[in-house]
Specification:
It is a single chain. The chain starts with a strand and ends with a strand. The chain is elongated, with a radius of gyration of 43 Å. With 573 residues, it is of the alpha+beta class. It folds into three domains: 125 residues, Beta-Lactamase, CATH 3.30.450.20; 192 residues, Beta-Lactamase; 233 residues, PPM-type phosphatase domain (Phosphatase 2c, domain 1, 4-Layer Sandwich), CATH 3.60.40. Strands 1, 2, 3, 4, 5 and 6 form a six-stranded mixed sheet that branches. Strands 13, 14, 15, 16, 19 and 20 form a six-stranded mixed sheet that branches. Strands 8-7-11-10-9 form a five-stranded antiparallel sheet. The chain has 15 helices and 22 strands.
Length: 573
């Protein structure tokens, strides 16, 4: 604040000379006149702005403002002047020749000895270089942050698709990873076969969940095909990616010959679109469509298109791997099931079997079961698990199953049957070990009861539920796994140890493999207890089919990593 008084004239003259001679631009305005015009400027003002004193005096300094001057800064200056207080602002001004410069303006009020406002003094400084450097620094920081954000998005999308369980899951994970970071709406149209076929809109994700079905409906109405005139059709045919920074606001302009699609388009409020091909091994697998919406959606640029193309390239490998996995997995399941027997009706018993294929393998496994209506009237039951999840395990399983059927058909005792299977593994030098249980159920006696004889080679103990609800774990006389102990010659004894139990009519027998109880990250004893509890809580006399369905419904792990074989037998009451 400056106060004008009648000080020493000599000192005042020196101050005036200093103001005139300084390199800093000084101006004085008179707020008592209408419009607060300039009444004096020093030569540095002319050097800074290009306006001589005769062109500046008598005018408000607003003549330095232009089309890009910040209106908010101008309003802050006006408020300070009305409140008669000092203010400093940096704003874009224009010289007489029209060139822009960044002007730092410091304005202070001047009062007389009576406290009345008589002038405003302004000091102007050209700070263009400082502002440009600061703007470049901010731009560099913003660009670096955008690059980091893009890397994070790439990493997130890659991570999400890496753990996908199948093609649909991979497409959905891709779409979810891009909304809302890169798009307000995202759709993935997958071809039936790489490079050809009919596309299916396999995944749709929207910032607003109500737009999900609208975007699906738009896909159905447009009925995209490879090579059709649409953006998606061109991309699916292998053409260049599509970038439309500004879409038409009206659906009728976008789809003039398709009123239904135009109506859906209007509800989506679309602003900008990119369509890029999802490729793998040189073939187009799908089209990835990214859209933004009014009023806040971004306007896509070439930089966004390059990012989307990079993401689509990474997605292509994940989707193609998922497709190959599903194809091989389906073939493996078909082969696996072809090695398992059809469970046929057996007089006097109910039999039900299920086989579930684990999701972590695309090859056949070694789990198996068998039901034999033996010629001497007995019933043979077998279940086993060959170590490994590959073709060698499947081959070993097929051989073991065939040998066990042959020896069982000859009327062999359970211990002897498993022993001879053991000799096969060692004699043929099959690089496999296996667990197995073989049960021989004799024909009913005069009371309808049946003798049950079994041998167990390292397999989970079968469960027996008596008609009165008593649960028995058949864990007697267990022996080592098949192939676990090398023999020095042909075994001649009575065979592996056996256990015998008399079963009343209505008894239920359950055989299973360890995929049901040995689950990674969970306690095997607790899962076995759950299985036993589930069996014990079944209604008395429950049919064999109901038993296996209930057991699988309660005891199957959330993510089935290993195969599961389950066999239930109910002796007729």
């Amino acid at each position: 604040m400056f106060v004008v008084d009648r000080g020493d004239r000599r000192l005042e003259e020196l101050r005036n000379q200093a103001v005139v001679a300084t390199d800093m631009s000084f101006t004085i305005s008179d707020p008592r006149q209408r419009g607060d015009p300039l009444v004096w400027v020093n030569p540095s003002f002319t050097a800074l702005t290009g306006y001589p004193a005769e062109d500046a005096v008598g005018r408000n300094c607003r003549f330095l403002q232009g089309r890009n001057t910040d209106g908010a800064a101008v309003r802050r200056i006006g408020d300070a002047l009305r409140q008669r207080r000092s203010i400093t602002e940096v704003l874009l001004n224009y010289r007489r020749d029209g060139t822009a410069f960044w002007n730092q303006i410091a304005i202070s009020p001047v009062f007389d000895c009576a406290g009345d406002l008589v002038n405003f003094v302004g000091v102007q400084s050209d700070v263009t270089e400082r502002v440009v450097v600061e703007q470049e620094r901010r731009a560099a920081l913003a660009e670096a942050e955008e690059a980091r954000a893009q890397l994070r998005m790439l990493a997130e999308a890659t991570t999400q698709m890496t753990v996908a369980l199948g093609v649909v899951d991979a497409c959905e994970r891709l779409a979810r990873s891009l909304v809302p970071e890169l798009a307000d709406l995202c759709a993935v149209d997958l071809l039936d076969s790489p490079g050809r076929g009919v596309p299916r809109r396999l995944a749709v994700v929207a910032r607003d969940v109500e737009d999900d079905e609208r975007l699906r409906e738009l896909g159905r109405l447009r009925n995209y095909h490879v090579g059709d005139p649409s953006d998606t059709g061109h991309v699916l045919a292998g053409d260049r990616p599509v970038l439309v920074p500004e879409l038409p606001e009206r659906g009728a302009d976008r789809y003039p010959d398709d009123p239904a699609a135009a109506a859906v388009y209007d509800t989506l409020r679309l602003r900008s679109v990119m369509v890029v091909a999802v490729r793998a091994r040189g073939r187009v697998l799908a089209a990835l469509t990214l859209l933004t919406q009014h009023p806040y959606g971004r306007r896509y640029s070439l930089r966004d298109l390059h990012l989307a193309t990079d993401i689509a390239g990474r997605a292509g490998l994940a989707i193609d791997n998922a497709r190959l996995y599903e194809t091989e997995h389906a073939a493996a399941v078909t082969l696996q099931r072809s090695l398992l027997p059809e469970v046929s009706d057996v007089a006097g018993v109910q039999v039900a079997a299920r086989y579930l294929v684990g999701v972590d393998g695309n090859q056949v496994g070694g789990d198996w079961y068998d039901v034999l209506d033996l010629p001497d009237g007995a019933l043979g039951l077998a279940i086993g698990d060959v170590a490994g999840h590959d073709l060698r395990a499947a081959a070993a399983m097929g051989q073991l199953r065939g040998v066990l059927r042959s020896y069982a058909w000859d009327g062999g005792r359970p211990g002897s049957v498993l022993d001879r299977c053991d000799q096969l593994v060692q004699g043929l030098e099959m690089a496999a070990m296996a667990t197995a249980v073989y049960v021989r159920v004799e024909p009913p006696d005069a009371d309808g009861a049946r003798m049950l004889c079994y041998a167990n080679a390292g397999h989970p103990a079968p469960l027996l539920l008596e008609p009165d609800g008593t649960l028995v774990r058949l864990d007697e006389q267990r022996s080592p796994m098949i192939g676990a102990i090398r023999s020095l010659g042909r075994r001649t004894g009575p065979g592996r140890a056996e256990a015998v139990r008399r079963c009343s009519p209505g008894t239920l027998l359950l055989l299973y493999t360890d995929g049901l109880t040995d689950v990674a990250g969970e306690d095997a004893d607790q899962r076995t207890a759950l299985l036993e509890r589930t069996l014990a809580e079944l209604p008395l006399g429950a049919a064999a089919d109901d038993v296996v369905e209930r057991v699988l419904g309660v005891c199957s792990p959330p993510r089935l990593r290993d195969d599961v074989a389950l066999l239930a037998v109910r002796l007729a009451p």
